[in-house]
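Hey, can you fold this?
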Amino acid sequence: MAVALVACGGPEERKAKYRARGQQYIEAGNYPKARVALRNVLKIDPKDADAYYLFAQVEEKEKNWRNAVSLYQEVVQLVPDHTGALITLAKYYLEARLTEQVVSTADKVLAKDPQHPQANAL
C-alpha cells in the first residue's frame, strides 16, 4: 500500500520540480532551459494550463510570436476564463486588427471581472 502511495506522488513531485526549475530559468533569462523544463512538465501532465502559460511567456521573450499565440490559445482551451491568457490574446488580436476576436476575448474577461482595466481599455 505504501508503494502505491509513493508511486502516485512521484509524477506530481517531478512536475512541481520541473515547473519550479522553469520559473527559475525564466527569472534568470535562460529561456532555452526554461523551455526544456516546461516541456517536461507537459510530458507529465499535458493538460497543465499553468505550464502552457509559462511556456507562452518564454516564447514571447524569445520573440516566437506564433508559438506564443498558439500556447495562449491552448491555455484558454484548458481554462476558458484564464484572465492572463485572454488579455494577452486580445492584445495580439488587436495588433492583427482582428476586431471581432478582440471584443469577444475582452468580453470573456469582463464577464468574470467587469472592472478589469485592461479588458475595459480594449
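Oh, and this one too while you're at it.
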Amino acid sequence: MAERLTVIIAVKNHEDLIGDCIASCREVADEILIADSGSSDGTLAAARRMCEGWCACTVVARNYLTACSFKNWAIPQAAHPWVLILDVDERLTDRLLEEIQRLLSGRPACDGYRVCRHNYFLGRRVRFAEWARDRVIRLFRRDQFRYADEEADHGEFPTAGLKIGRLRGPLNHFARRSYDEQLEKCNRYTALQARRWFEEGRRPRLMQLLLRPPARFLRSYLAYGGFLDGKVGIQIAYLAAYYAFLKQARLWELWQAKAAEQEERPAGERRAA
C-alpha cells in the first residue's frame, strides 16, 4: 500500500509564487497544508484553486516568529504520516517528483531523506559559489522530526537514532529574485543572530569587525570557487562579506544601546543595577 504524503508550504502574501510551487508538487501530494502567517492578498485563494481536482488543501494560521518554530508548529498538523516541507520559492523538478512517487509507492527504507537544492540568484543558477548547492532533509516521517532550535531561521533536524537516505533528484530554489528581497532577508537574519549573541553575553570585537568580512569574501570567491560563476560569483562573495559585517555591526549597536540606556539612568539606579 502506498504511503500518503502531506506537503507543507509556509506562506505570507505570496500570491505570485504559490501557484508554481503547488503545481510542482501536487501530483505527489495527498494533502497540501498551507501554513499562513497573515496573508492579506490572494495567496490562500490561489492555493485552493491550484489544489482543486488534485489533492486536499488545508489552511492553518498563526503569527510567524522564526522559520523553525513556525514549521515545528505546522508539522504535527499534517494529516498523513509522511511530510514534505517546501519553501514557497522552491520547485520540485520532474526527476525529484518521480523519485518521491516511486519511493512512497512502496515501503521507504529510511526515516527521512535529504535532497540537493539547486540555488538561483537573480534568475541565474549558482554553480560554484557557496550558495551553489546544499543538502537538506525535506521528506520525512511526520512523528519523528522536529527542528531542535526554535529560535533559528535556518535549522537542522536532529538525526541521532534515525536512518537518513538521499534523493538524487534536485530541488530548485529561487530564493533571491531581487536585491530588495536579498537585503530584506539579510536584515532579518542578521538582526536575529545579533540579538541571540547579545542575549548570550557575547561582546563585539574590533578584530571580528575588521577581519570577518574580508575572510568571508575570500572564502566565497576563492575557496568555494565563486570566481567560476563570473558576475554572479563576485556579487555573492560581496553579499557574504556584507552579511558577516552586518552581524558584527548589529551586535555592536545592541551593546551601544544598552550602554546609552545605563548612562541615562540616575546614578543611584546604576549602582543598584
